[in-house]
Amino acid sequence: MDALPIDREPSVRFVPDPRRVITKLFMPGDEVYRDGSSRLEAVLERILALTEDEVADTLADACALFSDRHRDFDGVLDRHHDVVARRFSGSLMAVPMTAERRRLIGAYFTHEYAIEAAALGNPSIVVGPDQSGVAAGAVRFVMSLRAIGEGHVSSIEFRTGVVDADGTVELDQVSSYAETGVRSPHAYDKGFFSTKLDDLAMLNEVEERVLARLSERFTMAELESAIKALADDGIDRSMSGETTRFLHWLASSNYRVSFPPSNEISERVLFPTGPTESRGMEDARFVRFIDDDETVTYYATYTAYDGHQILPQLIETADFSEFRIATLTGHAAQNKGMAVFPRRIGGRYVALSRQDNVNNFLMTSTDIRVWREATLIQEPKQPWELMQLGNCGTPLETDAGWLVITHGVGPLRTYTLGALLLDIDEPGRVIGHLREPLLSPSPDERVGYVPNVVYSCGSLIHGDHLVLPYGYADVGARVATMRVDELLNRLTDPPT
Predict the structure, then answer these.
(1) How many angstroms separate the CA atoms of 184 and 242, rounded?
(2) Is residue 406 exposed (0-12), middle (13-18) or buried (19+ Cβ within 10 Å)?
(3) Which residues pair with 360 in a beta bridge?
(4) pLDDT value at position 342?
């Protein structure tokens, strides 16, 4: 059968730009010398020994080279100085010093990181929260992208643009700045903590004693106090050390990140900060979720990777300015590739997943953070997906059913995209699927860091068109469009 007609937008292409950099705290190795001092202390002593003229000249040189690359360069240096000052709060930092010297200390403990130096791909796309000033028949979108930098560390970036009435995609100009926002802890739910610990087989007597001292909603400070109180129960650190470290690990993996609303969305970068994601935040699948009361919330599931294991996590935002990061729990919330439906079905949250790394499953839950029920709905059957398959983002609601873009892995680990159609009221029932790939790597998309791969984390329908952004070869990303009716006709009237 002939392939479905699909257009690759020639003017829309995302390629990694090593000029896009963020600032990060730079703490070199903390070696201890024979005299008992540390390398960090030695660096500080050398900075403190500079004359005021040397401080002024060195800081001026640094500002001349770097200040125009960051929106609040002075603020970055001040904050990084404060981190160092907290670590060395004794006599070393007690001497009076000028604002210039403080900023110079911050400069020595700062470095730039090229967030997309290696790759930019695996996009998802949603209708944006702000539709002001958009022409009639058009819609503004927000697109997320997986950016990969030094050490193959993944972060989440954003782009914006407009889909016109005829399906043409136009991108907004990307800001020259990139910022990671301000991270802050939030109140934790004791019931959720207990559930997650139980799921991970980490709930023991020590942790039950800690939880017993906490209210139903607690802060990091209250958690610290409860841990310190273990000594009152006769439990010393040799017995509780591993347990308390795990409690810190879990708490630190749940946090908030906020950005100034005045900054452009393309400036905002969700960079790994929690221990579960220290080596990357991978493949975010965003969905514009409309609750029963018409409240709109943007959710995204992503894969947190710490260098050893993966863990599914949840992003929640209303405006792409403030983000809440939370750990998912339940035995069904595991492995990669969760995708949440855009509304409740039968009063429950619904999501696609791939627990066994091979097949597509459907999950339901009354709590978007807790997933326990999963049903197998699709196994690999076509030649281009026999190795494994999975979803490519949130299902799209149509009159014919839930349209799901899928991916399959075939010979020579070639990734291609396919499509499923699920019943609108019973999404666990497959009512149509493509026998042939929807999108395969073109000759110029086969070459890259990971060859022979096309992959997507989300698409949208606007008018008569499916807008399908996709990554290729773990190098860059493009956008394809096609008529929805032609795809649905193929799905609802499959060949015999």
Answers:
(1) 24
(2) buried
(3) 378
(4) 98
Residue 87, Cα to own-chain centre: how many angstroms? 30
The stretches in the chain having pLDDT less than 70 are 1, 29-37, 89-93, 201-203, 236-241, 494-496
- Tokens linked to 349: 């949250």
Structural domain contains residue 148: yes
Question: Could you please report the per-residue DSSP string of 265-333?
Answer: GGGB-B---SGGGTTEEEEEEEEEEE-TT--EEEEEEEEEE-SS-EEEEEEEESSSSEEEEEE-BSTTS
What are the C-alpha distances in Å from 113 to residues 21, 110, 156, 205, 271? 5, 10, 14, 43, 11
How far is the C-alpha of 271 from the C-alpha of 278, rounded, in Å?
Answer: 9
φ and ψ at 141, to 5 degrees? -125, 160
Whether the Cβ atoms of residue 482 and residue 467 lie closer than 8 Å to each other: no
Range of the domain at 33: 26-114
DSSP for 168-217, please give it. Answer: -EEEPPPPS--B--EEE---EEHHHHHHHHHHTT---HHHHHHHHTS-SE
- DSSP-derived secondary structure for 341-398: -SS-BTTBEEEEE-TTSSSEEEEEESBTTB--EEEEEE---SGGGSSEEEE-SS-EEE
Q: Which two tokens stand for residue 211?
A: 């939880």
Identify the CA nearest to 146 among candidates 126, 124, 161, 162.
124
Nearest alpha carbon to residue 72 among 159, 156, 179: 179
Residue 1 within any structural domain of the chain = no
Which residues, in sequence order, are CB contacts of 75 under 8 Å at separation 6+?
A: none
Give dist(CA 493, CA 431) in Å, integer: 10
Residue 80's pLDDT is 95
pLDDT of residue 206: 79
305 and 261 belong to one structural domain: yes
Shared domain check, 428 and 309: yes
**Same domain (yes/no): 381, 328:** yes
Q: How many domains does the chain have?
A: 3
Same domain? 213 vs 270: no
Both 64 and 165 in one domain: the answer is no
d(CA 272, CA 110) in angstroms, rounded, equals: 17
Q: Are 352 and 373 in contact (CB under 8 A)?
A: no
Clarify whether residues 212 and 65 are in a common domain.
Answer: no
Q: Are residues 408 and 297 in the same domain?
A: yes
What is the pTM (predicted TM-score) of this model? 0.91
What is each CA distance from 339 to 71, 351, 457, in whole angstroms? Answer: 34, 5, 9
Bridge-partner residues for 406, per DSSP? 391, 418
Distance CA 270, CA 263 (A): 14
Same domain membership, residue 235 and residue 324:
no
**Location of structure tokens 């050390």:** 241
DSSP 226: H
